Amino acid sequence: MGEAPALFVDDLHCELSNGSALESKGSQTTTIVGDKTYSIGGNDDQSTSTIQVRIFDKSTGKWTIPTVLGTEPQQCKVHSAVLLNGERILVLKGGSTPDDCAWFLEVNTEFVREQRKNFETEVVAWSRGVIGDAQKPIVISGPSGVGKGTLITKLMEEFPSNFGFSVSHTTRSPRNKEKDGVHYHFTDRTVMEKEIKEGKFLEFASVHGNLYGTSIEAVEVVADDGKSCILDIDVQGARSVRASSLEAIFIFICPPSFEELEKRLRERGTETEEQIQKRLRNARKELEQGQLSELFDHKLVNDDLDTCYENLKKLLGLDQNIVSVPKSLPEFVDLPVEHSVSKIDQNIIVIHGSSELKNASKNMLLLDLSSLKGGAPGRTRGLNMYSRDPLANGMDGISS
């Protein structure tokens, strides 16, 4: 698809080439991608708090309201838009903080194309842009009784500021003292099924008639806090995560032998013989799949717990200093309402405040898009932001 600059429209009546018109109040941009025009904003419907999207298809001469996936940005008075590689539109919200100023509307990414087939209608997807990279999630799998839970507990106790758990979703009712958002995200089955269809879950399973699953948002929240999210899931769940857009470290914990695994399960003394046999059957399958090189990056044998734990720490680089990803930008507070944008290769130049030449270098902001990762329905990370003139030797780096 061809690439064309986005047009900034403010309180404007926009006439299209075939005579169709769009009334606009407030902030609105129109971006042309091939035969389609994406109208962002300009919605005077006060019942909606998020930025709305409409699509004009030149081939049919009709406007459509697409299915919108991902977390939608809140409305703003002014925004600008720039098309990136014919696949997504960068939307910059005027008057917003660094955590909220950059949003990506995916219009033709792999995720959107797949969901378009799934819904059999027009689909777009929002993704919030995040400055800098995040610590990779860690997927730890292994058969029941192998000791992965103990290893994870030791890791969390020794490095509480480096790791966190995602809060899973379930359709079952809360039990005594269970709190929503702490023990689980308790939700309705229809809601969870809808979000599964929309690709918002990394993995899910039906257990005793209830759905359980890990949402992409739950993992991203841990990453937003500057921590690595640990996912303790089975091999099938690991396969689902591997197939997603999430970049993770995959670790499989093995027993020294199948006989030793059976011994550990029996020593628990908490399960019936029927339950033990079921776990052993599942363990054989998981051990076979765990040997697949394309699924797991690393394999650790838990023969001696302390030795295995030390190997796990070494594998994760915990014998070195870990620097958390900064959550905020101290030097740059808000993206001004008044601003103009231009695109040069993988850089977005934002001029804010006074546009006079003598003040241009002081009022210039550079957004480097060359290291972007991820995307809807999670975050788009790797956005770098610099202040002042990027061509000057004395450029101040806000984030790099």
Characterize the structure shown.
This protein is α+β, with helices and mostly antiparallel strands. The chain folds into two domains: 7-133 and 327-397, no CATH class; 138-315, P-loop containing nucleotide triphosphate hydrolases (Rossmann fold, 3-Layer(aba) Sandwich), CATH 3.40.50. Helix content is 23%, strand content 32%. It is built from nine helices and 27 strands. It has helices at residues 110-119, 148-158, 189-197, 216-224, 235-243, 258-268, 273-290, 305-315, 357-360, and strands at 7-10, 13-15, 21-23, 27-33, 36-41, 53-57, 62-64, 67-69, 79-84, 88-93, 102-106, 123-131, 138-141, 163-165, 169-170, 185-186, 201-207, 210-215, 228-232, 249-254, 298-301, 339-344, 347-352, 364-368, 373-374, 380-387, 396-397. The strands form five sheets. Strands 8, 9, 10, 11, 12, 22, 23, 24, 25, 26 and 27 form an eleven-stranded mixed beta sheet that branches. It has a five-stranded antiparallel beta sheet with strand order 1-4-5-6-7, with no helix packed on it. A five-stranded parallel beta sheet has the order 14-19-13-20-21, sandwiched between helices. Strand 22 (339-344) and strand 23 form a beta hairpin. 35% of the residues are buried.
Radius of gyration: 25 Å
Q: Quick one: biggest sheet?
A: 11 strands, mixed
Q: Helical element count?
A: 9
Q: Which word captures the global form?
A: elongated
Question: Can you give the helix content as a percent range?
Answer: 10-25%
Question: Which strand-content bin applies to the residues?
Answer: 25-35%
Count the domains. 2
Instruction: Give the oligomer, counting copies of the same chain as homo and different chains as hetero.
Output: single chain
How many E-type strands?
27
